[in-house]
Amino acid sequence: MPKTTQLFGYHSKRAKLTEFAGYEMPLWYTTTAAEHMAVRNASGIFDVSHMGRFRVEGQKATGFLEELVPTAVKTQPPGKAFYTLLLNDRGGIIDDLIIEKLGEESYLVVVNAANAKADMEHMRAHSPSGLVIDDRTGSTAMVAVQGPGAVSSLQRLTDLDLGQLKRFRCAEARVAGEEALVSRTGYTGEDGFEVIVYGATSERPDGAMKVWEKLAETSTPCGLGARDSLRLEAGFPLHGSDMDQGTNPYEADLAWVIAAGKRGFVGSEALEASGAQPPSKVRRGLVLDFGIPRHGFEVLGDAGAAGVVTSGTFSPVLRKGIALCYLAQGSSEPGSRVGVTIRGSSQPASVTKPPFYDERSYGWKRQKDN
Amino acid sequence: MEIKGYHIPDDLMYTKEHEWAKEEGKAVRIGITDYAAKTLNDVVYVSAPKVNGAVEQAKSMGTVESIKAVSEVYAPISGRVVKVNGVLDSHPELINKSPYGEGWLVEVEPSNLPAERKSLLDARGYAAYLETLLQK
Fold first, then answer.
1. Could you tell me the residue range of the domain that residue A98 belongs to?
2. Which of A1, A197, A326, B117 is the most buried (most CB within 10 A)?
3. B67: nearest CB among A16, A229, A291
């Protein structure tokens, strides 16, 4: 039996369902294309309660996380949320995650649903005695509100001044009367928030359901189909598809998460060795002239095999096929032309560094008068 | 007729792979069913054979793609393609809006229709098949 989130009662009546990471989740409510464009042009809401949420608390919390991730932790102020990676001893990516710093020694770690168990085991294996790592996945719900209309959609439900909450900041607040943690983060490339509703279990889903239904009055409910096409259009890698334990941050084009000069974290020695030379392959974007690339499709350069597509879709904004892929050094220069083999024929494509959309028109940096 | 919200016109022939075929004079018009279109959810790309290309019954003759998925289209009958619905290049969503009308894919001049039509389903047969499929 797949697990369900606190909001399953809403999805089961209205959405086409799919199993993902052991959870029965909404794939789409209307169409993926319509939900995608609702987020780019107005605002959409996503049930992301399946994601893993771990509370890390106690005197040793900061020291523990500092030794666990390549990002600086101690110097982050409370109220900051930051993107980082869990690495294995070889510098390979166990997962990507967001850490929300609630207090000097208090954190909420938000991880991919598919990796939650492996992440917990990795953290427990490295944790000092006396440190509390508490799985809050089942006792909280999580809703993402994303799009240029996200501020106005969420502001109706809270006294927290969302205009004052900058990107990658978080604050505890009441949302629709429920105690919650609000962070200005997301996985769509748009402005928006992720709201973690406290005290929400499968037995007592009412508070989370109230938050969701109030948001649904002004935002479009979106399924995992749109979540995937939106993150891909923004160029965000999905762990398990676009990177795994055999990929290091240099190859994944995520070297920016490694704090300059930081040493002594899990995987740092391996990264020092691999960072000294250019990676043999690197993550890039592809825009196709025709056709839709999919996971596993081969990429050909002038000199033959150049790489492989790790995720691909149709971009509703560009109205073209787009992909994330890994390319060998000789073919990875943005602007290069390569071919993607689709059912036996090579389709021409351009190498890019995502996001795929024009940032003047879409995404959180967009010009406001658009 | 209609089975659980999926429209099945009475006057078409069907395959178990969810294509339909209809005689239009000397040619046979081919498309995908309402069920196939709704299962794909949002058709965004169509790859059909070219005019004069040969298609063979039960063999792939192209693909219909949504944002998330690729679906092969199998030729319900054999023959030579005489017309392609070029409007789908710019408006693939017509397959969702009107799978049996404006969303048709190709017209084929059949090479062996009398024999091949025996392996196609009528509307009642396809409806019964769809019902067993939806019970699973």
1. 53-135
2. A197
3. A229
Both A62 and A164 in one domain: the answer is: no
CATH number for the domain spanning A34: value is: 3.30.1360.120
Across the interface, whether the CB atoms of B42 and A321 are under 8 A apart is answered: no
Using one digit for the tens of pLDDT, what is the confidence trace for A224-238? 999 999 999 999 999
- Helix H or strand E encompassing B31: strand B27-32
CB A276 within 8 A of CB A259: no
Considering only CB atoms, A33 lies closest to which of B47, B63, B67, namely B67
Strands (E), chain A: 16-20, 23-28, 44-47, 52-57, 81-87, 93-103, 106-111, 132-135, 140-146, 170-175, 178-183, 192-198, 220-222, 281-288, 298-301, 304-315, 320-328, 337-342, 345-352
When pLDDT is cut at 50, 70 and 90, the band that residue A370 belongs to is very low
What is the per-residue DSSP string for A116-150? Answer: HHHHHHHHHHHPPTT-EEEE-TTTEEEEEEESTTH
How many folded domains does chain A comprise?
A: 3
Tens of pLDDT along A109-160?
A: 999 999 999 999 999 999 999 899 999 999 999 999 999 999 999 999 999 9
CA distance A312 to A285: 9
Q: In this complex, how many residue pairs, one in chain A and one in chain B, have their CB atoms less than 8 Å apart?
A: 41
* Chain A interface, best mutation among B68, B89, B90, B94, by max A CB count within 10 A: B68
| d(CA A29, nearest CA chain B) in Å | 10
* CB spacing of B45 vs A292 below 8 angstroms: yes
CB contact under 8 A, A291 and B42: no
CATH fold of the domain at B2-135: OB fold (Dihydrolipoamide Acetyltransferase, E2P) (2.40.50)
Q: Is the pTM of this model over 0.90?
A: yes
Structure tokens at B60: 């792939």
- Using the Cβ of A18 and the Cβ atoms of chain B, whether some distance falls under 8 Å is answered with no
Q: Do A44 and A220 contact (CB within 8 A), yes or no?
A: yes
